[in-house]
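Reviewers of the previous submission asked for a worked example of the structure-prediction workflow described in the proposal, so we include one complete record here. The input consisted solely of the amino acid sequence. No template or homolog information was supplied to the procedure at any stage.
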Amino acid sequence: MTSKSSVDQLIRRYILETKQVIHPFESPASKLPVLNKTIFEHQEDVFRHLKIKEKPLFISSLEEIIPSISQSLVYRDDIYFNKELVLEFLNKASAIGKPARLAFLDTDPCFSVHTYYPQHTMEHVGNLYMGDFFFFPAGVQERDFIPVIIDTESVSLSCFSLPSLGSEAGPRSSNNLLAVFPPLQLQVPRLSYIAIKHWTQLLFANFTWGIYCQVRQLNIGLKNQNVVFRKVLSYLSKRYGQIHIGRDCQIDPTATIIGPTTIGDGVIIGPNVTIAAAHIGDHAVLEPSCTVWFGVLGAKSSLLANKNIIMSCVMSDSIINTDIRFSIVGSRSFLGAGSHITDCILRNADEGEPKMNAPMVKVIVGKEIVNSGYYVLGPAIGNRVKIGSGVIVYPGRVIKSDSIILPNQGYNIIDK
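From that input alone, the workflow returned the following structure tokens.
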């Protein structure tokens, strides 16, 4: 693990542009938000923290790279990564002194558990997953890359277990796949890297590679201090250090805020609100008795009274009047009162639907129905979507942008 916090050498940056849009948000990943910033803004923040000030050059292929007197770093614009990963890669690649490419063992839990589903696009060579992250020494342009293997140092986090019927449920229990569901496990990395090719990856980039990873970094920071200072820092961080509150916010004294949490400017937080490990955008409104737990609420969005956002992401200018969990909602959307956003399959599909006849939540990739990799997963709701009261949305479903769904139109259950 490197102890450096910045990169000393001058580095030229190239960004490989991606034109593919992420359904149902119909924008390239680089323009979509993770923790209330676009992925491009996150990438720029990483290099700003590393004191790499030179502006990037945009290219469509590696062939456009020009030999430079300085080292060069090339990466794709749809990747969410943190500064710890970049430092680790640059230090190892610089030591080799030859063109290098980021790689991960295919046994790394972050990739063997999460990345394979639902859209496996990483190049698999031998026992390695190859990342779209390249290093060129000064003056070198050859394309014979040496893999630089990075361990994401992930840890397993158990969220909850689904109910098991047990032997007392009778003879049918042995055929019920709910009885053998594994607990929901999230692999939380210290070194974050995830390429956004599908809406599920955008969702989990927000709270697994984003919020949970931030929690890990804070815990590691505390462990590296001496005992006395660690106690003082722990005491302060619970009150100030892990909580960032913007200007002109109105926060009711009965609200509970637990770090690490970032609250933007002009946010209104009502009575008995609970915010834990969350990112709240500028001018958002949280009405009385609502909860944001390991979630993201975008700028100018509103969470209405007594409603909850759990491990979910809501983009800007949306109004949420129902509970959501493991779900993602686009910008300028409205979820009406009494609508139900479900996230778990309670029974097998009909035998006539063999592709759907399994407990793991399925999602659509292109024209195919595939496993999401998760037994608990809510839907993706696009931009400018309006959902009326009483609508039920099944797990893993996608509602395309600009949809209006009302119960009296016969679409009160979104099951396909």
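Confidence is low (pLDDT under 50) at residues 165-181, 225-241. We consider this example representative of the routine output the project will generate in years two and three.
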